[in-house]
Amino acid sequence: MQPPEQRDDVEMLSLMLLIRRFEERASQQYQAQKIGGFCHLYIGQEAVVAGAVAAARPDDYLITAYRDHAHALARGTSANACMAELFGKATGCSRGLGGSMHYFDKERHMYGGHAIVAAHVPLAAGMAFASKYRDEDRVTLCFFGDGAINQGSFHEALNLAGLYKLPIVFICENNLFAMGTSVERSTSLKEIVERAEGYNIPGTVIDGMNFREVRDKLAEIIDSIRQDPRPAFAEIRTYRYRGHSMSDPASYRTKEQLEEFRLHDPITRLRAQLAREEKLTNEQFDKMDKEAKETALASVKFAEESPEPPLEKLYHYTYVNGASA
Amino acid sequence: MREITYRQALNEALAEELARDPNVFLMGEEVAEYNGAYKVSQGLLERFGPKRIIDTPISENGFAGMGVGAAMVGLRPIIEFMTFSFSFVAFDQVVNNAPNMLTMSGGQFNIPITFRGPNGPAHQLGATHSHATECLYANVPGLKICTPATPRDAKGLLKTAIRDNNPVLVLESELLYSSKGMVEPEDFELLIPLGQAELKRAGSDVTIICYAQTVPLALAAAETLEADEEISAEVLDLRSIKPLDLEAILKSVSKTHRVVIIEQDRPFCGVGAEVCYRIQKEIFDSLDAPIMRVAQEDVPMPYNERLEKAVLPSVEKLITAVKKVCYT
Question: What ipTM, to 2 d.p.?
């Protein structure tokens, strides 16, 4: 992973394509029953995590909820390790023990993959607390959905972050639906961003279908936190094209709404911006897309051919041996 | 050796581990400026400062979760629950996040966290504040649980818990905070391994298995049984619920052939149920009588003093059970 200043828009478009093609393959493999459990796809939301990692340093702490495949890919976890995790294989990013909702990659500062709604928001506050405790200038990026904002742990964590002035950005990926319940049916406020005001945390609304807006606004927030540790809140408005999970036909929303958002597709949009600026030709785009598709397809082969976690290691990860030195 | 209180012993353990490792910090309600609701953290703010002794708002889920997050990135938090009855507000963090992380991440993230505070019924605190939580948490793989009954065990087990690289629950006892006992001098490195029971009294006729607040009850009952009934009772203090020292249990029972388990939790799926199962599974032929359990009555704790006493395990109930297994 390169530092942000060296990561240009074309590279980030390529990441967004990889996320989309990976998720499409995951969907296909789920339907082919190669993947068990739950599987929540990120298609439509790619600009959010791409913009965030483009704005952050690779060693900033990143933690998210269960719609997490893209966050690992954005941190540089290989498509192979991500697909193998879905297949429950030993080569997966959590050795096949976590599954779709529990991706982890310590080396790349990806701290999960957490599947109890909002239960990871206090963890994020703890990670930011640790940075401050050790006088590091890392910022914690804590992603969650609009469904998390009515959970107690979310409120407790925001208050603690505001109280202790923790260096953290709370990133609400507002895709309008908590599973099948729309924001207006779940939340007493009209604007989610207003939640932050109650905890003396500055809030910003960002168009999540626009990569450059996400990157630039988050970069401004992250850089200012790095100078002066304190929390911030970003409501990033986005949309998931698929249902909540693979088993959800999303009948609670209209085709028109989906089509409306597709018109602002983040990949199409960034592609068009780059084309206008003559930074990307059709041939280059097609080549990038082809590579993304090939990487996703190859990850399926890798996952299929990988070994299962060994049965004799069933108890191996319940406790770690040893004590502090 | 010198005589100190259980409270002082815990305080010494905290101070020694804070001094030893800069990654260790103490966080919880009233731990700093108030010096602890039960004064266990007395003087620590003055000595270690507000960066390491941290008062929190009343947000158990929030600060327990912060501890887990800080542990994920290498700190060693000590999270104080004012009582373990309040840990239920943080249940998700204690049972879902702390113990699952190592497995879920395929071994990438261990959580070196200590959750500590008083556990079990105290005196007339009513149903919400009297929970003995050991049987609930013992059901969760990935957690370790210890239950010190003496000042020496309190100090040695807490120090070990703080150094352990896994989540450990140190279940203290409010009723024991002012009790006294002999402990090695302050500069002595007192570490008592988790999962090691201790014979608190040797005997030959019956084994009384106990832990936490039931240890003094067992010792008192053993004295009475010796004097009044000529029954020689061996008292085995589990000290840790998980890992469980099965070897020590089997060794004692193989000698006495009779067992009473006195536990401070409820009877249904209580700690004694598991201990009982293990004994009969391993050394059924060695038993001369069915195993008896003395636990709480299976009701929410009443406030009324007489009724509370009726719910709790007691010396009298224990003596009755011992006489029953000894057929006297």
Answer: 0.95
